[in-house]
Amino acid sequence: MLFNIIIASILISLTSFAGGILLIWRKLLTKKIIPLLISFAAGVILTVSFFDLLPEAAEQARALNPDTNIFIPTFLGIISFFFFERILLGYHHHGDTHRHNPIAILVLVGDGVHNFIDGVIIAAGFLLNPALGITTTIAIAAHEIPHEIADFTVLIHEGMKKSKALFYNFLSSLTALVGAIGGYFFLESIQNMLPAATAFSAGTLIYIACSDLIPDLHEDFEREKRWSQLIPFIVGIVVMYMAISITHGVE
């Protein structure tokens, strides 16, 4: 059983290379196209937060304790990333001027938390029923692909080289393996923390989208006066919402 859980979590980690799709079409990574991809990323990240993570956290909380307030860890996720970014900005300006924008670090940390939770969910599925574990893995992989493309786009936008963006995104995704192994050995203990961890992850993603991605889109609009960026934003929302709806039906 542990072997199946490990294989499934590794497959989830490999979805981090979905961003490589953009490398195949190198024309997508031009300065004019990147803002459109960032708009898509903002739509994807907001949709994941409000239609996947927060409902999941609420469902987990109801199963454990109906009185649990998931908005407290969501709020803490937003606030903690505000202070985290402020600290990184201070270090960034007083240190090496060639360091990457701090938001890239926030994306990797937030995605790491998210992937850890996915790993625990995979372990729980296999422990309940191997067939459930397989369908859960397929469901998670399906809606991780657009999310990972969004993350890769943000990392590129924040100054990372393409190869490094793929590599660091993959390292961040390996927390799914950590969560899966931890879930196998300590599922009961970890399950009690899942609602708060899931809500916290949602808060971090909301912060990234609203404090960094969307303001960048506004700045781009002021410079270029292009309404076209609204289209990929809406596409990101629709694609992610459909992926979540379909995969939750599979689960």
TrEMBL record:
Pfam families: Zip (PF02535). InterPro entries: ZIP. GO terms for molecular function: metal ion transmembrane transporter activity. The keyword Transmembrane helix applies. GO terms for cellular component: membrane. Keywords: Membrane, Transmembrane, Transmembrane helix. It is found in: Membrane. The keyword Membrane applies. The chain crosses the membrane at residues 6-26, 33-51, 71-89, 166-187, 193-210, 230-250. It is a multi-pass membrane protein. It comes from the Bacteria. Coiled coil: none annotated. This is ZIP zinc transporter. It comes from Candidatus Roizmanbacteria bacterium RIFCSPHIGHO2_01_FULL_39_12b.
